[in-house]
Amino acid sequence: MARLADYYVVVGYDLDKRVEGEGQGRILQRFPEKDWEDSPFPQGIELFCQPSGWQLVPERQPASFFVAVLTDINSERHYCACFTFWEGLDNPQLQKAEASEADEVDEELAVVQPAKVFAPKSLVLVSRLDYTEVFRNCLGLIYTIHLDGLPVPLETVIGNLLTCVIPIAGGSQRTITLGAGDRQVIQTPISDSLPVSGSSVAQLFRQLGIVNVLYLFCAALTEHKILFLSSSYQRLTDACRGLLAIMFPLKYSFTYVPILPGKLLEVLSTPTPFIIGVNSFFRSETQELLDVIIADLDGGTVTIPECVHISLLPEPLLQQTQTVLSMVLDPELEVADHAFPPLSTQPSALKIQDKEIRGVFLWLFAQLFQGYRWCLHIIRIHPEPVIRFHKAAFLGQRALTEDDFLMKVLDGMAFAGFVSERGPPYRATDLFDDLVANEVERIRQEEACPQKVMSHVKELAEHFFKNENPYPAVAMHKVQRPSENSQNTAKNQLPFPVLDEVAVQLFIDHAAAKLKTAPPVVKAELKGMVPSGPPLGDTVDRNGNVMANSARRLEVVRNCITYIFDNKMLEAKKLMPAVLRALKGRAARICLTQELNQHVLQNRAVLDDQQFDYIVRMMNCTLQDCSHMDEHGIAAALLPLVTAFCRKLGAGITQFAYSCVQEHMLWTNMQFWEAMFYSDVQNHIRALYLETEDGEQQKNHEQQDGSGGGREISALELASEQNRLWPTLSKEMQTERVQKEESTVFSQAIHYANRMSYLLLPLDTSKNRLLRSSGLGDVESVSNSYVTNSIAGSMAESYDTESGFEDAESSDVANSVVRFINRFVDKVCNESGVTNEHLKALHIMIPDIVQMHIETLDAVHRESKRLPPIQKPKLLRPTLLPGEELVMDGMRVHLIPDGREEATGLMGGPPLLPAEGAIFLTTYRLIFKGTPTDPLVGEQVVTRSFPIASLTKEKRISVTLPMDQFVQEGLQLRSCTFQLMKIAFDEEVASDLAEVFRKHMHKLRYPQHVQGTFAFTVGQGGKMVVEHKTKDKNQSLKTLSKNLVKSAKRTIGRQYVTRKKYSPPTWENRSSLQSELDEDEISVSEEVDQSSLTLSSTIRSSDRQTMSNVVERACCRDYQRLGLGTLSNSLTRSKNEPFRISTVNRMYTVCRSYPGLLIVPQSIPDTTIQRICRCYRQNRFPVVCWRNSRTKAVLLRSAGLHAKGVVGFFKSPNAPSAVPSQADSTSLEQEKYLQAIISSMPSYSESSGRNTLSGFTSTHMSTSDSSDKLRQPKIGALMKQVMGTKEDVPGTFSRGALGQRAKVISLSQPKVSGKARNPHRGKWGSIRGTGRLSAYNPDVGTRLAGKESPQPNGGPSEALFLRQQKAYLYIIGDKAQLKGGKQDSFQQWEVVPIEVCDVRQVKNSFKKLMKACVPSSQISDPNMSFLRCLEESEWMSLLHKVLQVSALVVELLDTGSSVMVSLEDGWDVTTQVVSLVQLLSDPYYRTFDGFRLLVEKEWLSFGHRFSHRGAQTLGSQSSGFTPVFLQFLDCVHQIHLQFPMEFEFSQYYLKFLAYHYVSNRFRTFLLDSDYERIELGVLYEEKGERKSPQVCKSVWDYIDRLNKKTPIFYNYMFSPEDEEVLRPYTFISNLKVWDFYMEETLSEGPSYDWEVRGRQERAAEETPEKPDTGGPKSQRRIVWPCYDSLSKTVPDAITKLLQDLQSLEAELGQTSEKWKETWDKIKTTQRTETKLESKPSFSSSLLMSSNLSHQRRSQGVYLQESGVGSSINLALDCEASATSTPVAGRPSTSTLYSQFQSTESENRSFEGILFKKGALLKPWKPRWFVLDKTKHQLRYYESRQDKECKGVIELADVESVTPGTPTMGAPKNIEEKAFFDLKTTKRVYNFCAQDSLNAQLWMDSVQSCLSDA
């Protein structure tokens, strides 16, 4: 029973204490005046009566009522019902003013003050019960009696009110009256534990909406601060009450103030969580609260600050809850779309709706907490039950360990209260207990169906409603209200009277006396056992959270353990990796603990070393995946096992498994130990009370709650029974039980002190390196350093354990362990009520336990070091190149998988990585070689290597290996050959050794000088190469360069000393506005001192030598081939040539980075050049590098102009200037220079005046007028694309007849007008067919039609590009530099501004490309897929830009305009564009020799800064790696893909160059210019200087040599067309990612170092496998991507046939022919056969007849089935020119060119080897015969390569060809029909072919020649 009201208080306005216009309230009267003992009077009530402050108001306000809640010091809530009304009084302000006239009149008086004001007065009831309506009625009644003057004394009413007593709960009904003719009925709730909510919950949802309230609900449960705002006080109270009601069964235990007075607003900045309500009047004060969630009830919003993260309910619960709530609150939503909605779908009445919502939340909690009772540990039963909740187990079994929300709720205060309140097993139960125990199954079945949930919720709502309203029909209320007129006419209303305290007190005393005499009301509380509900385990497994196919995995684990204990170690070893993978799954780990348990006998299992090793490894793997909470109880199950498994180390010394599994954070987690301890205590206490005999068997069930068998009594059930019996026991029995329990706990504490010392003390206590103690002995991780200590043997014995410091060190370890155990013991013993004496005893015992354990460990450690080391795989030696030497011998490492999935087995195939092996650092490469750790592929060898020079990034990483649980230090090394090595050093590698490795690597990667690179140091001895001073080769050149440097310095007037090596400023550091002085360090900017250039005779001589070398260089030969000038009669000019070879730069004085010989216009003298060059950056003035043999247009290259006003010469060409300044004169000379170039073009000189192309006809140009008209628009569109106007021209083909005709003319059969075929008809795309117009981009049609769509977006107008007179010279310049250039119609050149990609862009793009192609770790973010990363790298769009510009230039050159490419410094993009243009325009550059020449000329001679861009030395390290050349190769690769028949070299050739241009194996791509190469003496190596023949210094020689041996570089599809100009597609969609970036061959490493490859194969052959006797061996091979080299294991058809041929020749003992000869022979026979075939058979129709020489044909390989047998037919172009070129040594220049002008191939109609009988008495000899139709002769050579003809048989003299017979000395084993004779007028020649077929062919060929003649 409880009082309805504890206190009645009257609070009024305090007139005496006004402070600055703020009033205060004071208590006028309170009853009773003495505090009750059980509830003291709450302080500060006057603040709460007027929460917004006490104020006088000018008008009377209506009476108001609300309930505030105060919480006292014992966290009891007091409900203060405040009824406030206003009373009139004379204005105190006016009185005050009259009283003190002397004072200055207050400002307030400035406002006219009313005479009468109204002051508030509050009647307050304080109660511990929450009956809002009853309080409202009672206080209303008192006010009514006072107002209407009813004849009832107020004292009686108040006396009655204060003495009214009602029951707290139980569902009774009381009628009360206050003695004023009123009557009220109070219904008490049935269950005290369920909150009463009225309709507040429904109101809350109406005000804020579903989602907002859910946010608040989650915020309250996860302990955030919540603030409600409203202008109504009662609504604030209701909202808070509603929020608390939906939290049931949890109780809110933090600050709870539904109405906070304004004076106390600073409470809001408290650090603790709260739920507080504040009037919206104070909204502005709440704005600066940063971490408070504000719910505005009036506006319906919830504002969550940025810094607050609310964890929401776990899915799918959140979704389900929202759905059901919306069904309750808005039932119309479901049927809103129905065509025939039901007639009434009104939501329930508010009161009912309120209960339905609470039903939803109760249902929600039942789901959240289901099975919680199975995770309670009861650790004491008597005298009071002590209960702990095992959080980790609960989360683990619910599979919600990752869930933020549940974690926070379980850690919160509310849940702690929940456990202590609902934990005891013997107590009264309520609705929630019932739901959680008995309805679990039902809830699970309903989950999917909201309708069913709804019906369940309605049932729960009924319970709630019934609880609040047990008696439905009550209409007995009768309470008077004030009459209307009394409220209105209350003008002269009397103030509220002062009551007679004595009278009221008498009432109270009287009632108290009565209560004392009354008999006590005893209501039997129904206690019972709390049901636990179904156990958790099976609920989750049915949800399917078990791992897939776990049965198979468990089988593997079981088998492996059986093998280990049966000592079948090999079997176990094979299964091990699978087991370790399986142990990732929970089921497998539990299975492991169960299996191991079966092998323990009497708590002990002795194993041998290997068994022990394996068991420990499995334990480590199992523990490694346990989180620090151990939510699945796996570590708990392993704990007894680690003290059971052991091995004997020596006499009386045993090592237990625990010493090898300490390396896990779990053991240092206090919560884990507590949970374990409580679980064990519970089992023991349970055993104590189980009166059963089989106590022994119970102990072995080490499972939690001991829920082993089917009908076992759980500990909670037992405890409940004991609690029931407790009152019936005698005193002695009770104390005996308490003691027994206490001593059980105590003995467990001792046991755990031992266990913890086992797992926390490291095996080697002398080393404290892994004990990271943070703070006061808070041991984060204590552990030892070995997997199992048998590894200790393989460690270096560097630690001297007998050092004497041992005690001091180990005591340090001991202390921290002791501190940790002490903290643990204090905590658990206090919680489980261990007596103080016992606790003290424990504290004394612990240090002894630890010390004792340390001593045993020392012995074990000593013995374990004696064990033989574990057998590790032996290190495999890598094969090295000749001259490559090891810098550091192999260090044992593990190669860890990176983000590429192929090798890890994720995409199928075996897991080749991780692999175990060693890393080797050589002078050239970094090599990993080892074997996969997975034994299934353990026989394979994994190799990964890259050149040390290509290392771009190195970072330290720490790696956890899957096999052992140590975190190891490792390195991640990234190389620009698209390789990544993630290595983890083995524990046997000392960390200082790893450091040495890094240092060496850096030293090799960035040598001081380029002479430190491998290409120079190769074969110089394995010592680390520092600076070698090599003997200068060209002494005189050195002096020359010194002089140059001096003069340059003097001229420029720089103060700092420069190095000899020239390093121009990087592109990045140079601003565009840079003065001439800011040129590179050593470039001659002013007139050079003549004195310094007067060269002495020594220089002259060396100069001559140099010049002769220069002349021999390739560029020179190329210039001669192109007809750009010759070096005849000592460098004098031949006047008729438009160009000459100038030697102005032979000493590299004009431009340091240009070659010595340059092509300039004939008319320009050298002096002009020296002046012009200054206008250009780096002095790189325009020079000619290529000429179109047909149109005679030339291609020039230069750097961009200096921005310093010289560009003005483009901008205003005819600016008048009075005094010609120097700049003007140079700009005039520039104009002269450009004019000279233009005049050199025949199109200019021959045309009269300015008509560019109209008047000019020559044999070179096509006479068909149409072709030119067709071409021009195409260029316009190309230009638009290049210059970046955004609009693509829409293509239409229906633009009138012209469009159609154009199409026909340009793309139909090429015979346009008689003889004049269209020689420059290029081809777009890769397929040789001609009808592919529509497949190209849509603009083609428009371009052909010659109409351009207008440019609406202000792009360049047509006129610019499509003037009738095209410009003679286009200058491709940088947009940024050419801003504002005006186009002058009189000029004959035109500037095309394009945006050029910056070197920085290339660098960053390349970095991203590498990360995309070779990611360093598995990409988890789905947005970062490979293609997305590739796109973001922008590599493809950079290629697109370069290709697009090149295509434009090709197009311009082909139409007869010259082009000058003048971008950046002229050595990056310029080089790319110029080289691509030549490659596309000139078929010669698509052959081996041509491509070599192109690279040597444009890249090497013209000074692309290979060393600088490749960051090859220490100096250029900071600038980083920028792959400009790689970008070029990629462009070539793109073109190669589109035109596979145009290139003599294969894709592999490009990859080879891409690899070796960064590898530094060859000197070719070192240094930045010819000048530097001469200075180092690299350029012209003396012929006899080669030390060792196998060390190749030039990559070209190497390729030549290799090409002779193997067709790997050769493209079998090669059959070029004459004068073919390629026009590739350049759109990004047409570009492919180069496989060079993606492929890898783990079997042998990169395939670009052939010696290594060959040696590996030889080594493999030397160790033949043992003959396999077990049956026939399969011919099948498995080819793994990323492991095998596909080209090798699955060669293409032709390579395969050539290989077979070679092996057959070897078997027959013949001298095997070079592959090239064989190939050429096959092609020749193919041609002759095509000719000889008369009837058009299947094959001949396919292999088109040969007379259509210009026609292309698709090439294929057919096996022709004819009577003769099968021979290879290759449909090849009969005029394939360079195919049959012999590739012997470097041929002389003349042969180079004669071979290019396609003559030779026609001269060789048929060729091959024939044996020829010599003259009398001479033997038969094989000779290479060539049948030449043109010259009508049969020539023969010594061998195929031979250039010198050994003899000629003129066919004119031949009389007959007849089959012959073998004569003496003829070759053996050749059939008879293979002989034939050739009879000439002079003599008879006897020949012998290889076989009869071949003989027949020869005879036929000769015969056909004879008949032709």
Number-wise, the strands total 48
Describe the sheet with the most strands.
7 strands, antiparallel
- Residue-averaged pLDDT: 75
> Helical segment tally?
62
- How is the largest sheet built, in terms of strand order? 27-26-25-24-30-29-28
The radius of gyration is 50 Å
Note poorly predicted spans. Answer: 97-110, 538-548, 692-710, 768-809, 1022-1104, 1129-1133, 1205-1209, 1211-1223, 1248-1273, 1285-1364, 1582-1589, 1663-1671, ...
Approximate shape: elongated
Derived from helix and strand composition plus strand pairing, the structural class reads alpha+beta
Helix percentage range:
25-40%
What distance lies between the first and last C-alpha atoms, to the nearest angstrom?
138 Å
What portion of residues belong to β-strands? 5-15%
Keywords:
seven-stranded antiparallel beta sheet, alpha+beta, single chain, about 1900 residues, 62 helices
Q: How does this structure look, described?
A:
This protein has 1909 residues and is an alpha+beta fold. The protein is 39% helix and 15% strand. It contains 62 helices and 48 strands. It has a seven-stranded antiparallel β-sheet with strand order 27-26-25-24-30-29-28, covered by helices on one side. A seven-stranded antiparallel β-sheet has the order 45-44-43-42-48-47-46. Strands 3-2-6-5-4 form a five-stranded antiparallel β-sheet, sandwiched between helices. The longest helix has 31 residues, at 836-866. The radius of gyration is 50 Å and the shape is elongated. About 20% of the residues have low confidence.
